[in-house]
């Protein structure tokens, strides 16, 4: 039952129409929990504006009525940032109807899209004009551009192209008072003061609602080669990426590290996945090289680098994919890890980053502390070595129940986050804070940093109606 007045609800319906307002509990259901069903809340209603003007009017009405808003895109996040609280008084503002690609400027290498555009559709639109939009992640078939920007998404190509902060040139944002900031400028140089777009990218809807963006495009990739490499240690991975960067430069677009435990879960639980090697190895990396040239000799370049690595003991074995099917099979081993781990019971997920040079020491120290404190835990460590981002996830010991294992979640988290901070890292590399890491951020971020963040929140959302309870 909605806690909102009939007059307020009618005013919203006048703005967005009957198609843009959802009050039926059954229809609202999919907007009230995340895709993993890890977070669930209640809402007074769901509003689905179809234009920036409608978003602005909805925000203005909510401000006048002191009703909190929870912006939502594809709802594929991992930290509960787009889920309302349990009060049933908040309004979920879904941007999925705002799905227009407004403009493509090939000469300027930019594309202007609305926040509800699905990432895969954005990639396809770039391909249709012979260009590349490089952000790529597991949820690209359902996540939206607005959500990607709200969490400053990274993905598998950050090594070459950067994250959403690096890919965004301009924004259109509805502010907390209903005004619209039109910053949709496709400029790579604009030295006229504060770069306001960076306040909103990564802010998880707590400062304003991103409704559109100007994004960078890149030349299309015409040559690609992929290899699966067995390694003795994480240090070997750091040595190998240094070697490949020196040899290949920007052609190195992917370098994904995986522990044996990660791969074993995929082999056990994901249909059709096979081990590329006959022998078991402790660590693996997936390497991808790409080039804009049609006949770039990437395979030779990759084989040269791997040959040196094998001779130096950095690599133990390697296989280079010879066709698209083999490329897909190698990537399936990497992309299947998260799903596979779910089959082993609760997965305590920690998305951290440390300097690339610190990855080996971080893994060694944290593995040791966890195994000493929680014997039998299975550590699923994998991630994007090139940008220092590790997904350091923990599964329960074999034979342990879910409840007693989850009782250790906070203690396990503190071991991992304490080590992360000790190595000058971050407790969230690409998933944001949402509600999952809000309290941890209060503990691990510095007092001055938190004060500055609260100052920005107070300045831009003084009433506190933009996604309350998230991030801060």
Automatic annotation (TrEMBL):
Domain (FAD-binding PCMH-type) ranges: 39-220
Annotated GO biological process: respiratory electron transport chain
GO molecular function terms noted in the UniProt entry: catalytic activity; FAD binding
Cofactor or coenzyme needed: FAD
UniProtKB keywords: FAD, Flavoprotein
PANTHER family linked to this entry: BLL6224 PROTEIN, D-2-HYDROXYGLUTARATE DEHYDROGENASE, MITOCHONDRIAL
Protein family according to the UniProt entry: Belongs to the FAD-binding oxidoreductase/transferase type 4 family.
The protein, known as: FAD-binding oxidoreductase
Species, as recorded: Pseudomonas baltica
Lineage: Bacteria, Pseudomonadati, Pseudomonadota, Gammaproteobacteria, Pseudomonadales
């Amino acid at each position: 039952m909605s806690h909102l007045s009939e007059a307020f609800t009618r005013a919203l319906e006048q703005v967005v129409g009957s198609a843009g307002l959802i009050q039926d509990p059954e229809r609202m259901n999919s907007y009230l929990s995340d895709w993993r069903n890890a977070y669930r809340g209640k809402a007074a209603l769901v509003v689905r504006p179809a234009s920036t003007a409608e978003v602005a009017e909805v925000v203005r009405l909510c401000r006048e009525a002191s009703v909190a808003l929870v912006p939502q895109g594809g709802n594929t996040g991992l930290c509960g940032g787009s889920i309302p609280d349990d009060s049933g008084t908040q309004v979920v503002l879904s941007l999925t109807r705002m799905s227009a690609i407004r403009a493509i400027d090939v000469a300027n290498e930019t594309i202007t899209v609305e926040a509800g555009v699905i990432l895969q559709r954005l990639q396809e639109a770039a391909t249709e004009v012979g260009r590349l939009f490089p952000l790529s992640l597991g949820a690209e078939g359902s996540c939206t551009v607005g959500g990607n920007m709200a969490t400053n998404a990274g993905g598998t190509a950050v090594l070459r192209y950067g994250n959403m902060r690096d890919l965004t040139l301009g924004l259109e944002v509805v502010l907390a008072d209903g005004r619209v900031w039109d910053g949709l400028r496709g400029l790579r140089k604009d030295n006229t003061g504060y770069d306001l777009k960076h306040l909103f990218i990564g802010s998880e809807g707590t400062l304003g609602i991103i409704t559109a963006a100007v994004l960078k495009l890149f030349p299309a990739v015409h040559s690609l080669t992929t290899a699966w490499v067995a390694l003795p240690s994480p240090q070997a991975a750091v040595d190998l990426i240094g070697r490949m960067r020196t040899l290949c430069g920007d052609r190195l677009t992917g370098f994904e590290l995986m522990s044996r435990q990660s791969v074993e879960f995929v082999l056990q639980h994901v249909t059709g996945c096979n081990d590329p090697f006959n022998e078991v190895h402790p660590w693996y990396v997936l390497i991808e090289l790409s080039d804009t040239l049609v006949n770039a000799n990437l395979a030779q370049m990759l084989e040269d680098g791997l040959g040196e690595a094998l001779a130096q003991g950095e690599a133990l074995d390697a296989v280079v994919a010879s066709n698209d099917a083999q490329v897909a099979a190698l990537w399936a081993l990497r992309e299947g890890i998260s799903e596979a781990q779910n089959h082993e019971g609760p997965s305590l997920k920690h998305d951290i980053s440390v300097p690339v040079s610190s990855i080996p020491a971080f893994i060694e120290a944290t593995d040791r502390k966890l195994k000493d404190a929680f014997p039998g835990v299975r550590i699923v460590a994998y991630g994007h070595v090139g940008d220092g981002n590790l997904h350091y996830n923990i599964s329960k010991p074999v034979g342990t129940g879910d409840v007693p294992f989850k009782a250790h979640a906070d203690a396990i988290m503190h071991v991992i986050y304490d080590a992360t901070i000790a190595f000058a890292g971050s407790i969230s590399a690409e998933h944001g804070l949402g509600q999952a890491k809000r309290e941890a951020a209060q503990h691990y971020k510095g007092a001055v940093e938190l004060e500055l963040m609260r100052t920005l929140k107070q300045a831009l959302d003084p009433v506190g109606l933009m996604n309350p309870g998230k991030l801060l």
